């Protein structure tokens, strides 16, 4: 009985510690003990005791005015976690859920210089159109929806430099091989925060992609759904964007609040 009570007490302390950390995380400025106690529902003496222990471990920093902020140790731990995060590992469960919802292939692509590399895919046995979207497959940025997301994130000078380097080669009659057409397409992507591939890499294959962002707000990958043109559904835009946003959130991204 005594051992069970001790275990319950330890769990309670951890829960209280987490409530204090959450309160500090949501506060833009240093917070007083009184405010922390009120926001967490803890007695001031209890909050003070837990904060003192966390201060000793550098999880919390106490300032001269008697206020508290998150400590440097959390930054160190966060950087360790960040270095060990695999986008593929984080994204896969979300990709599987999207695949079950839509029933078509879901792809995860990252940028390597002037190409997109597909690093994960949930297969769809309904289609034989798999040339571009095999895991490990590569494609020029301007020919795929995921690649166009990365070009849209670039500045005008970078896009034009890409066009000069590559010459904007085409693979189908639908490929964007003129700079003015590509720039127009990228402007639309910036406004709507998703990209289309209308049989530009492969005849008969269409695609919708949405951006995945890191905790620093940088575009790190693209999530796409690919399907034969006759099964393509523009209503997929919403679930693709929601899934990409969920993956971004799992990576630590927080969308800036509107002013």
Secondary structure layout plus pairing:
Blueprint: H1 2-25, E1 31-32, H2 33-40, H3 44-56, E2 60-62, E3 67-70, H4 72-84, H5 87-102, E4 105-112, E5 115-122, E6 138-140, H6 145-153, H7 156-166, H8 179-192, E7 195-198, E8 205-213, E9 219-228, H9 237-250
Antiparallel strand pairs: 1-3, 2-3, 4-5, 4-9, 5-6, 7-8, 8-9
Helix pairs in contact: 1-2, 1-3, 2-3, 5-9, 6-8
Descriptive keywords:
259 residues; alpha+beta; Arc Repressor Mutant, subunit A; Beta-Lactamase; three-stranded antiparallel sheet; 9 strands; 20% strand
Structure in words:
The chain has helices spanning 2-25, 33-40, 44-56, 72-84, 87-102, 145-153, 156-166, 179-192, 237-250, and strands at 31-32, 60-62, 67-70, 105-112, 115-122, 138-140, 195-198, 205-213, 219-228. Helix 6 (145-153) packs across helix 8. With 259 residues, it is α+β, with helices and mostly antiparallel strands. Helix content is 47%, strand content 20%. It is elongated. The protein is built from nine helices and nine strands. It has two domains: 2-81, Orthogonal Bundle (Arc Repressor Mutant, subunit A); 85-250, 2-Layer Sandwich (Beta-Lactamase).
